[in-house]
Amino acid sequence: MFDLVLRRATLPDGRTGMDIAVSGGRIAAVEPNLPGAAAQEIDATGRLVTPPFVDAHFHMDSTLTYGIPRVNRSGTLLEGIALWGELKPQLVQDAIVERALAYCDWAVARGLLAIRSHVDVCDPRLLAVEALLDVKARVAPYLDLQLVAFPQDGVLRSPGAVDRLTRALDMGVDVVGGIPHFERTMADGAASVRLLCEIAAERGLPVDMHCDESDDPLSRHVETLAYETQRLGLHGRVTGSHLTSMHSMDNYYVSKLIPLMAEARLGVVANPLINITLQGRHDTYPRRRGMTRVPELMAAGLTVAFGHDCVMDPWYPLGSADMLEAAHMGLHVGQMTGVDAMRACFAAVTENPAALLHLDGYGIAPGCHADLVVLQAADPVEALRTRPARLAVLRRGRVVARTAPVTAELTLPGRPQRVDFTRPQG
Ligand code: FE2
Fold first, then answer.
1. For site-directed labelling of 374, which of 100, 195, 202, 221 has its Cα 20 to 30 A away?
2. Can you name the residues that pair with 31 across neighbouring β-strands?
């Protein structure tokens, strides 16, 4: 007898009428019309059941601080960085923990069960590092939180940052971060990439850098990142986040760059909600979008994810932990309305970031963790279109969140009494 069977599921790969059996927190079988009883049954009624959403790029130390100590009036990246600088000395550990836990509650309710968060290591107290390590342990039963040691003010530019970054890694932070485009010179940026990749190689850790988050087409630190990955044999362990300068680069140079990135098996994270609002701010018209070249990178075989980056913080006033919002924006900004391209956008907030985070046991197959989300949608494209309710969210085979189906009631003579924005049957 199984612990639970989820019946009549449509899977992201298009299989329909599938039953998913769970035993001991893992998936035991995925078959149509699975015989046998279970202690608990959930009927998906033909709706989409997906592995959880994964956010490959977030800032949990700043989330939900919007308005503290003031709002970002201009909405620009630079005012956001200045505002974060004002806020940092005022941070209190308990408040960081509370806000992060509150965000994780939202995440679970949205079926987002794994997050890679950068944590600023330029504060001499390393308060946010301590706070998020505490949060990581506390949410572990229901959410995988991975932490990146992020030197927001530049690992070379900010005095003592190398020390603080290595201290954060000693304390248990999982990934080496960086911000080469924020160093004082291009040469310092390249030196920071080299130094940080060497630290990661020495310690056997992955790398995930904010890289070339700029409209400057000559910001080419991703080239150095690919080179160092190659030189140090870090293939498949290094991710470049943002890479917005690639939007503005000369096409000929990009035709050389993308194969170098593919050779190093770099991971790529675009953050469409943030890139579309923070980049192109010096432009008049035409105004650049700023998002990196997602379809071209995917076509070259690179693993590309969409991250949320920010929710209600100095850089972004909106958001509610819904990765389908990030995917929806990425789809539009990248003009990815082709059938395969839309499905790739769904993968960019599920299986692709799961691969970048090296999540163990992710997926819907026997042996995988029974982490599943039932959506009020028929398939991944409808999920992108309607950003639907997460009817049930399961972690290790247990329901951890539920949302009632969302329908609107109509009182129009001769028309249906309810609409739920799914395509009428028949
Ligand atoms: Fe970021």
1. 100
2. 19
CB 305 within 8 A of CB 352: yes
Phi then psi dihedrals of residue 34, to 5 deg:
-65, 125
pLDDT for 262: 98
Between the alpha carbon of residue 366 and those of residues 9, 20, 27, 157, the distances in Å are 15, 9, 5, 49
Alpha carbon separation from 186 to 157, 218, 220 (Å, rounded): 12, 9, 9
pLDDT in tens, 357-413: 999 999 999 999 999 999 999 999 999 999 999 999 999 999 999 999 999 999 999
- Statement: residue 61 has pLDDT above 90: yes
Cα(43) to ligand 1 centroid in Å equals: 39
Å from CA of 213 to ligand 1 middle? 9
> Among this protein's residues, is 223 annotated catalytic?
no
Cβ atoms of 263 and 238 closer than 8 Å:
no
pLDDT of 426 strictly over 70: no
The answer to whether the pTM exceeds 0.85 is yes
pLDDT tier, 422 (very low <50, low <70, confident <90, very high otherwise): confident
How many angstroms separate the alpha carbon of residue 259 from the centre of ligand 1?
Answer: 25
pLDDT in tens, 339-361: 999 999 999 999 999 999 999 99
Distance 156 CA to ligand 1 centre (A): 18
Q: Which of 335, 331, 354, 355 is nearest to 343 (CA)?
A: 331
Phi, psi of 296 (to 5 degrees): -70, -40
Cα of 376 vs centre of ligand 1, distance in Å, is: 30
Q: pLDDT at residue 230 above 90? A: yes
CA dihedral angle for residue 136, residue 137, residue 141, residue 142, rounded to 10 degrees:
-20
| Residue whose C-alpha is closest to residue 143's, from 14, 79, 48, 52 | 52
Q: Which of 183, 213, 325, 382 is catalytic?
A: 213
pLDDT digits 0-9 by tens, 63-95: 999 999 999 999 998 899 899 999 988 899 999
Measured CA to CA, the distance from residue 275 to residue 253 in angstroms comes to 22
Centroid of ligand 1 to alpha carbon of 209 (angstroms): 9
* Nearest-angstrom CA–CA distance, 58 and 321: 10
Q: What is the distance in A from the centroid of ligand 1 to the CA of 366?
A: 35
User: If you measure from the C-alpha of residue 55 to the centroid of ligand 1, how many angstroms do you get, rounded to a whole number?
Assistant: 12
E strands in 10-63? 18-23, 26-32, 38-43, 49-50, 53-59
Residues around ion ligand 1, judged by CB within 5 A, are: 309
